[in-house]
Structures are given as structure tokens and as C-alpha cells.
Amino acid sequence: MSAxxxxxxxxxxxxxxxxxxxxxxxxxxxxxSTGDMLRAAVKGGTxxxxxxxxxxxxxDLVPDAxxxxxxxxxLRQPDAAKGFILDGFPRTAAxxxxxxxxxxxxxxxxxxxxxxxxxEDELVKRLLRRAEIEGRSDDNETAIRNRMRVYxxxxxxxxxxxxxxxxxxELKGDGSVEEVGARIQGALxx
Length: 190
Ligand code: ADP
What we know:
Blueprint: E1 5-9, H1 16-27, E2 30-33, H2 34-44, H3 47-58, H4 64-75, E3 84-87, H5 93-106, E4 112-117, H6 120-134, H7 141-155, H8 158-164, E5 168-172, H9 177-189
Parallel strand pairs: 1-3, 1-4, 2-3, 4-5
This protein binds adenosine-5'-diphosphate.
The site of adenosine-5'-diphosphate (ADP) has 19 residues, from helix 2 and helix 3.
């Protein structure tokens, strides 16, 4: 039996979104991507979108209170009860603490945190390639470098948090989408 309450951790460009989509198809769980939800909010011109837009364009984090609100609302929806994969949340210690508290209130546990490791040169290459295809406004070199630094300083330390909770699987994120997918499947089954 595979774990069904999952978190994907990794730097920008590590392949979290791609692998999350595969897991949605394989396991029938929902993907919760704060990046996708925030981009939708910016596009829709909502209050959250207005608060997030400038931060996102610079490659800075959106304030914890905003993101925590978005993630909590999504996790409380009934379809998340059958399983979820968090992609891009939490990204700070405060967000991780809020997630722990929310899951405790919902009476569920995170079963696995998969941390994808890819070296920085490869990440920048992937993101610049994605910039050509998707034209995301934060996939320019300045914002990319800032997102990498923010990841190292604020998000990478969370790996220790999930190691202490006993749910961490550290995997190499290089190779084809299928190869990485197979590694993840292995980590969820064990
Ligand atoms: P990537 O992983 O490629 O950086 P995402 O789509 O996950 O892309 O996130 C894009 C941007 O959205 C981030 O740079 C940040 O501004 C904002 N964002 C997404 N998730 C969070 C979060 N959990 N906390 C703060 N900001 C976030």
C-alpha cells in the first residue's frame, strides 16, 4: 500500500509539479500547489492575488499568513480527505508549524516527505528552458537566482524537521521523469 498523505520538498525546478501530477493520476489523490493557487489568484485579481503578485515576480516568498490561509482552506475541502500531495508548501518554519497544527486538528498524519535533490546548474538550466516554453514571469535569471537563495535559506532547513518526524525520504531528482517517478513510488511503498 502506498502512502497517500504526502509532501514534496525541493528547490525550484526540481520537478515537484511534474511528479505531483503523476501521483495524482496514480493514486487518485489531490495536488495542492500553493504556486498554482497563487498564480490563479493573481490572474483572477482577488485580494490574495493582489497581496501575492509583487512578491512572486521578484521570486520572494508571499507572506506566511497569506499562504497558510490558502493552504488551510484547500486542505479542509472534502476531496483532500482521501489523500493529498503538497507541492510548494510549506516553505518556511512558520508554515511547517501551521501545517503540523492543522493536520493534528484534522486528525491525520503526514505519511511521507519526499525531498528531491538536484544540483544548482541543472536547476537553472531547467528553469530557463521552462521560461521559453511557459513564459512564467518569475522564470527570468534574477528572479530564479533569488528563488534559489530563498530556498536554501528558508526551505532547505525544513528537511531536518521532517527527518525528525520520521517521514523523510531523500531522493535524487536527476534523470528522466519516469526514472524519478519510479524512485518516488519505491519510497512511498516502503
Ligand atoms: P517554484 O517551485 O518553481 O519556485 P512555485 O510555483 O512553487 O514555483 O512558486 C512560485 C512563487 O509563488 C514563489 O516564488 C513564491 O513567490 C510563491 N509561493 C508559492 N508557494 C509559496 C509558499 N508556500 N510560501 C510563500 N510563497 C509561496
